[in-house]
Amino acid sequence: MGKKFFIKTFGCQMNFNDSERIRGLLRTLGYEPARSWEEADLILLNTCTVRDKPDRKVLSHVGEYKKIKEKNPDALIAVAGCLAQRAGWELVQKAPAIDIMFSSFNIHQLPELLNQAQAGYKAIAILEDPPEDEERIWDYPLERENPYCAYVTVIKGCDKRCTYCVVPRTRGRERSRRLESILEEVRKLTEDGVREIHLLGQNVTAWGRDLEKPLHFSELLYAVSRIEGVERIRFTTGHPKDLDDEIISAMAEIPQVCNALHLPVQSGSNRILALMERGYTKEEYLEKVDQLRKKVGNIALSTDIIVGFPTETEEDFEDTLDVVEKVGFEQIFSFKFSPRPGTPAARMEGAVPEETKTERMSRLLELQKRVMSELAIRYEGTVQEILLEESRGEDTLVGRTTTNRWAEMKGGEDLVGKIVRARVERATPFNLFCEIVEVVR
């Protein structure tokens, strides 16, 4: 065919994994990746709608990308993902240059949509519910950028009803992927040289509950760990309410499960947590952290925090800072509250002024900077196990510790893909500078 594609991805790891699947699908249709959008025959934006800013960015990009039609009238612009699912035809009306639109429900329908668009029709396929043949997507290959670490989607959607979140609307109800389908993909990945498997889901720890014969997420962890070639296992994102003793015990017992976990707290205020309908209290969250520290040991935690949720007071915000201080997160993803259309929180009174959100965000980031600096110092002098993922320059290698810290060291390119033990000579809040002690395997 000789056609080229360009994909721009916004948002979470689920979106990036979807884009890997879309790239693989397009390859099967004969498309090749373009070096830039200017030389593409198909430009695809895989979108996020968790906050307002990505929405606006997508419209801005479409406005820029439509220029391609001046030199290539047959070029197509596609919009996929969560914004497409939420906005539907409203988005096409705002940006008529869009030729194709679909959501995460129906990625597998892209070949038919391309045929429609090439015939001159608007190919818009936004569904109310996931189609019965949604699992066809697993038949298509992935095209990954990282040869040693791979994301594997194990569950789609979310049954939680957090009042600020659009995921149940844009990604649908929880749909667990069949165990054998997951394990088959993991086997193929390890045969292809992958050493680290990262299990993905909007609520990954809910995996298995909706299967015809229900299974527990811990059973998936054990099953993946038994596959030859799996050296490391990570999973994202779990809900604190679903993190139970069985999962924590599996994390402690399975050698391949990394001692790092992303556990979104969102707020430290019980009043705000109740308004968010998170289903736990500050004290229950801290108890889960305590259990993890006792059983898993030396576990690195990261989290999400929303600043300025409706009616948030100074006292509420101080409770959030208290959680950050007590837990000592290795990384925080913090966001100012952004009302999402159709969510209960968007209709709540008591909006926090923008200047107050900005001031509180500044204080949160300042505290986190101090916490990360203190944690970094603790790494100095320790020996860490690191999977080397890439070579930068002539003799610089980069990889990640089991605690998900980026580490840099001197070494030859022949070590890329190896697991090494390295001593941390110097640490900053975001990087470790190491010296290799030995090659493990």
From TrEMBL:
Protein name, entry field: tRNA-2-methylthio-N(6)-dimethylallyladenosine synthase
Q: Which InterPro entries match?
A: Elp3/MiaA/NifB-like_rSAM, Methylthiotransferase, Methylthiotransferase_CS, Methylthiotransferase_N, Methylthiotransferase_N_sf, MiaB_methiolase, rSAM, rSAM_horseshoe
**Which enzyme class, named as a word?**
transferase
Superkingdom as given in the UniProt entry? Bacteria
Can you name the source organism? Answer: Aquifex aeolicus
The entry's family comment says: Belongs to the methylthiotransferase family. MiaB subfamily.
- Subunit structure of this chain's protein: Monomer.
| HAMAP family found in the cross-reference section | tRNA_metthiotr_MiaB (MF_01864)
**Where is it mainly found?**
cytoplasm
EC no.? Answer: 2.8.4.3
TRAM domain mapped to chain residues: 377-438
Q: What does this protein do?
A: Catalyzes the methylthiolation of N6-(dimethylallyl)adenosine (i(6)A), leading to the formation of 2-methylthio-N6-(dimethylallyl)adenosine (ms(2)i(6)A) at position 37 in tRNAs that read codons beginning with uridine.
Q: Tell me which Gene3D superfamilies the record gives.
A: Methylthiotransferase, N-terminal domain, tm_1862 like domain
An annotated GO cellular component of this protein is: cytosol
